[in-house]
Design brief:
Layout: H1 2-16, H2 20-24, H3 31-38, H4 49-76, H5 82-87, H6 97-105, H7 119-145, H8 148-156, H9 158-169, H10 176-194, H11 205-233, H12 239-263, H13 266-277, H14 282-309, H15 312-334, H16 340-387
Helix pairs in contact: 4-14, 4-15, 7-11, 7-12, 8-10, 8-11, 9-11, 9-15, 10-15, 10-16, 11-15, 12-14, 13-14, 14-15, 15-16
Keywords: Membrane, Transmembrane, Transmembrane helix, Transport
Family: Belongs to the purine permeases (TC 2.A.7.14) family.
GO molecular function, one term: purine nucleobase transmembrane transporter activity
């Protein structure tokens, strides 16, 4: 009985002192102990869970749609550099330094940055960063050769790949809920691709095939990235470590892109493109560069946070659902036509996404009810034992 009371006191003390900060200064605390306390951050009953989830989805939403619209704007006004398009996807990594070090510098947290950042996690972060760099290059090549509708269709295939690879790598259960969502969103993208008013005019078969296979490769790599990150995040005990890993990944990806830029003369090409090629002038060109750097970081950080807080499949569904939302962005910003096929595609996508989110909500609600029932039973048994 004394042991149980002591344990209860310890838990109350940890909860009162702020969880991670109390554990951080425990001399005998281990990664396993920290993971036990912080595992609740991924549970909907934790007070930080929902604000983090909403914040990360907003970052993904704003980053994905904004980067897509900026990419359209870039190519509409004579931008064409594949290496520039690749480099700006990761060059915003210095932005991640702020949320990594500022909270500790302002004494908002007692946890030092990169605490428990093991050599294994470092090497995995670098490896995944290089993988993302290759993925960014493949996306740039695909977008430069394929029409938007075709590239959206091919990229949406990553959702089916994500479901398969998640089932293999992280043992994701294939249920009616997630399978139905994958089918509906994929069907939405297929319908969208049927509306191909600007399909392949002026494009050689060679360029079309290069763009097609590059986009397929990008979809496969992204589908592999999501469950791999979910598996790695199982060893990560707090959201702060997710930001730190993302910083390392983006640095590795930028190094790869910078090597390519230097080798292919990308930096001089960027300067020439801004001064002579981009038809809106150098000022607007550099505003575009900076804006796209920021939006890509929002997109990647939002995706990473969604995978950490939910699952790789949920992250993939959220990212793919935004492909159809990009169509609405094009209608609003570029005054693109919004015909019947686009309307049907958008409705299907919205329906699939909402049904999936509602399914997640009902599952979380049932888990909370079960947990509350279990807690009530334990309290009843404990009280009964104390009285006797």
């Amino acid at each position: 009985m004394t042991t149980m009371k002591n344990r209860t006191s310890d838990i109350e003390m940890i909860d009162e002192e702020g969880g991670e900060e109390a554990l951080q200064h425990e001399p005998n605390s281990t990664m396993e102990n920290k993971m036990q306390v912080h595992a609740d951050k991924k549970c909907s009953t934790n007070k930080r869970y929902m604000p983090l989830l909403v914040m990360n989805y907003l970052m993904l939403f704003v980053g994905s749609i904004s980067s897509s619209l900026l990419a359209k704007y870039y190519f509409r006004h004579n931008g064409s550099s594949k290496w520039v398009s690749t480099w700006i996807q990761s060059a915003g990594f210095p932005l991640l330094i702020i949320p990594t070090f500022l909270p500790y510098a302002l004494t908002l947290t007692k946890r030092k940055p990169f605490t428990d950042f093991t050599q294994k996690i470092l090497m995995l972060s670098i490896f995944v960063g290089f993988m993302l760099g290759i993925n960014n290059l493949l996306i740039s090549w695909g977008v430069s050769y394929l029409p938007v509708s075709t590239s959206s269709l091919v990229l949406s295939s990553q959702l089916a790949f994500t479901l398969i690879l998640s089932a293999i790598i992280v043992k994701q259960k294939v249920t009616f809920l997630n399978l139905n969502c994958v089918i509906l969103i994929t069907l939405s993208s297929i319908i969208l691709a049927l509306n191909h008013s600007s399909e392949t005019s002026g494009m050689t078969q060679k360029k079309y095939l290069i763009g097609f296979f590059c986009t397929i490769g990008a979809g496969l790599l992204f589908a592999l990235y999501l469950p791999v990150m979910e598996k790695i995040y199982k060893k990560v005990y707090c959201y702060e470590m997710v930001i730190e890993m993302q910083l390392i990944m983006q640095i590795a990806s930028t190094i790869l892109a910078t090597i390519g830029m230097i080798w292919d003369g990308g930096f001089s090409q960027m300067k020439e493109e801004g001064e002579k090629v981009f038809d809106k002038g150098p000022k607007i060109y550099w505003i575009y560069i900076v804006s796209n750097i920021v939006t890509w970081q929002l997109c990647f950080m939002g995706t990473a946070g969604m995978v950490f807080l939910t699952t790789s499949l949920t992250g993939g569904i959220c990212a793919t659902a935004l492909l159809s939302m990009n169509v609405l962005g094009g209608v609003v910003v570029f005054r693109e036509a919004f015909g019947g096929l686009k309307a049907v595609s958008t409705v299907l996508c919205f329906w699939a996404f909402c049904s999936y989110v509602y399914g997640i909500y009902t599952n979380h609600k049932s888990e909370i009810n079960k947990r509350n029932e279990s807690s009530s039973e334990i309290i009843t048994i404990t009280n009964h034992a104390v009285t006797h």
